[in-house]
Design a protein that fits this description.
The protein is an alpha+beta fold and about 325 residues long. Helices cover about 30% and strands about 20% of the residues. It has a 5-stranded antiparallel β-sheet with strand order 6-7-8-5-9. The protein is globular, with a radius of gyration of 22 Å.
């Protein structure tokens, strides 16, 4: 058992204080907390709402105050050779870490394989899998099994349904191809570009981390849009009714606010709707009892924390690995 830190809000979440004065913040929404504490500035409320939508896929009217405050209070990066605000990244993002890890397990990795049922039988775990290339069903027997997947998938593989507190925000992600970047003499294109007052979260410049000294022949910006105006099921249903041209029109409407005339530079728009983007830390989620699993089956995913950041996924992965070795 890991001891809690001395911080009220920490990363990973499991190390945060269990003092009731902080845990009670999970009983109300972030909006209710802001109103109670007298935060009435519209730009401030917009910014807090933006941050919650960016990290949780839901705004201040939906996420718990505990989760909302955690966003601002828990990030205390420390390093030996840089300041606390520095960002560690690679051009390919976390794909870099995945490729490095893959080097140590290439001979043990099964690709094109779907696990469709997992059950514990005595002191063994049985995983029924479908091999796409040979169209065969096989059963794998193991001492332990780690399900590195969200609850809405993992629980169904176990023949269960996810707990009611696990609700997921649908998202739209659009890659927009441009002949020229939208250049403003007063504000160059940054990695993350936020458009005040809009429903989308703005966009990132997908080639911002490119190391090449040669300018690219074309550019790609990626617009992110949590579909949180309705309840998740209603948002997913509405999203399915829209055609590609509808999404293009909506995306360009957002971008034109910041860059009038940008449509003239667009060569292609690729839209992708993620039906389940990330878990939403609604009131009661952060303090809800942890659902049990069979003793040899372990979950490892950031949604267990209610906060979709790499550090939480790493924590649960390490915890699951340690449980397998006990």
């Amino acid at each position: 058992m890991r001891a809690c830190s001395s911080y009220a809000f920490d990363i990973p979440v499991a190390l945060s204080s269990k003092d009731p004065q902080f845990l009670q913040l999970d009983n109300l929404t972030m909006e209710a907390w802001l109103r109670r504490e007298g935060f009435r500035s519209e730009p401030l409320r917009w910014y807090v709402d933006y941050c919650c939508r960016d990290d949780y896929g839901a705004g201040i009217n939906t996420v718990s105050a505990w989760a909302g405050i955690h966003y601002f209070a828990a990030r205390r990066g420390k390093a030996a050779n840089t300041d606390a605000s520095a960002v560690l990244t690679w051009p390919e993002g976390n794909g870099k870490l995945a490729s490095l890890l893959a080097r140590h397990s290439e001979d043990k990795t099964m690709t094109a394989t779907i696990a469709y049922r997992i059950q514990q039988a005595g002191d063994k775990v049985l995983a029924d899998c479908y091999l796409h290339q040979t169209h065969e069903a096989v059963r794998i027997e193991a001492d332990h099994c780690i399900l590195a997947m969200p609850q809405f998938i993992g629980r169904r593989i176990l023949g269960e349904t996810p707990g009611q507190q696990f609700t997921y925000a649908p998202w739209l992600v659009a890659n927009i191809h441009l002949r020229d970047l939208p250049v403003d003499k007063n504000l160059p294109v940054c990695w993350d570009n936020v458009i005040y007052g809009q429903q989308s979260l703005g966009y990132i410049y997908a080639q911002h981390q490119t190391l090449s000294q040669q300018p690219p022949g074309s550019h790609v910006i990626t617009l992110y849009w949590p579909l949180d105006q309705l309840e998740p099921a209603d948002s997913r249903h509405k999203a399915l009714q829209l055609q590609h041209r509808d999404w293009v029109e909506l995306c360009m409407g957002q971008l034109e606010k910041a860059h009038p005339g940008i449509a003239r530079s667009v060569t292609a728009v690729d839209c992708w709707i993620w039906g389940h983007g990330m878990v939403r830390p609604i009131p009661g989620f952060m303090t809800a009892p942890v659902a049990e699993t069979p003793s040899r089956i372990h979950f490892a995913h950031s949604d267990l924390s209610g906060i979709s950041i790499f550090e939480e996924a790493f924590y649960h992965g390490e915890s699951a690995a340690m449980a397998c070795m006990e």
